[in-house]
Amino acid sequence: xxxIVDQVSLGAIVQVRDRLLELQANGRAVLRLESGDPxxxxxxxxxxxxQQALLDGRTHYTASTGIPALxxxxxxxxxxxxxxxxxxxxxxxxxxxxxxxxYIVFRALLDAGDEVILPDPMWTEIAENIRxxxxxxVRVCLRPETGYQYHPEDIAAAVTPRTRAIFVNTPHxxxxxxxxxxxxxxxxxxxxxxxxxxxxxxxxxxxxFDGERxxxxxxxxxxxxxxITVHSLSKTYAMSGLRLGYVIATDPIILERLKKLVRCTxxxxxxxxxxxxxxxxxxxxxxxxxxxxxxxxxxDILLSALNDAPYVEAFKPSGAFYLWARITPEWPGYxxxxxxxxxxxxxxxxxxxxxxxxxxxGPAGEGHIRFAFSCSTDQVRKAAKLLPAALESAxx
Length: 396
Ligand SMILES: Cc1ncc(COP(=O)(O)O)c(C=O)c1O
Hints:
Blueprint (H helix, E strand, L loop, with lengths): L11 H14 L18 H12 L12 H13 L11 E4 L1 H13 L5 E6 L4 H8 L3 E6 L10 H7 L4 E7 L11 H13 L3 E5 L25 E6 L12 E4 L3 H14 L5 H12 L3 H22 L4 E4 L6 E6 L13 H11 L4 E2 L10 E5 L4 H16 L4
Helix pairs in contact: 2-9, 3-9, 4-5, 4-8, 10-12
Bound molecules: pyridoxal-5'-phosphate.
Pyridoxal-5'-phosphate (PLP) binds next to helix 4.
């Protein structure tokens, strides 16, 4: 049996990024549509709060679960905005980004061999964090013909006696699909019927378009005491490099385990970033709304370019900042039934456009490609201009 860490990949997107950076170092113009890092600056009041924290010498260890002001701000936010019913800030654990939150949640939840149901395709790190915790990812295929929805009947069919949890992600990376309340209610009732926990990843809760509403599954009656929610400030406040996330849990055993895990992994998030996070959550949400508007405009620019391009069938995302497209079988670069690396490589070589091969997100992602529109609007515009002609000329 290989070492548990050897079962984790080094990441397809990292490979694409390395190639783009190498090209750039050699003087080529590149367009960074491969990964999801917001192009925006953090809100000014967050900047100021962190500067003040430095001036005040707030550079020492903090409580490992987070500073009281931040846990209180998060408690207020999740009870009023997300509709979670929790007893107080003691249900909040501040983490080093959502990624670290997910790592400790699966570690706290799973015993060796426990199964977790998750959508396929899915952001790579979910299956990997499940495996790192000794668990087994059980994938439920999302299909283009049904708008990449996470169907409750498919989830129910994947439940076995070893199932421990159902993982939910809305808005979804990589497809941008948003789960609405009726589907979430059905998923919650499956969890209730089989006495399962739900892990809800809401990293993109504020990147949502066309007036859609984000629903936290943990707010639904059937889900209330069986959901662990993972949030991130990376996308909401463009704070990706500051590494700030949080977990909401109500089960006392899980909470105790999470506390031990934060102590043993990070012993508290960067103190200055925590002060910034409290300012972000307590302050004006105008910049977050403005970013979502700008992402929607970028989505429309890129979607219209892909609709004009041959060999791709793009899905219109209702949230997150990714455009997911099926590569049609006519694609001349095809190197096998489900090849997708050929289009990613072709676009880098031909036009310096970064993307992610769909297979990076699981078997159902094969034959797909993902374009991130979190880079600047200018880069998105340039990519949109180049893409149709670049794909067109692939046939030549
Ligand atoms: C679905 C999903 N969940 C969680 C995260 C975690 O983000 P972070 O660790 O920056 O908070 C990401 C980041 O891309 C993501 O795509």
